[in-house]
Amino acid sequence: MSKQETNPMEVTLALTEKEMDELDSFLMSDATTNEVMMLDCLDGFLTAIVSGPAMPQPSVWIPRVWGPTAEDAPTFASDAQAEKIIGLMTRHLNAIVWSLHQDPEHFEPVFYMQVYADDEREYMDGEMWAHGFMAGINMQRDSWQALFESKHGPVALRPIYLLGAPEVTEAEEELVKTPAQREELSKQIPASIGWIYKFWAPQRRTADSANGITSENEKPKISRNAPCSCGSGRKYKKCCGATQVSD
Question: Which of 22, 45, 130, 152 is the least buried, fewest Cβ under 10 Å from its Cβ?
Answer without folding.
Answer: 152
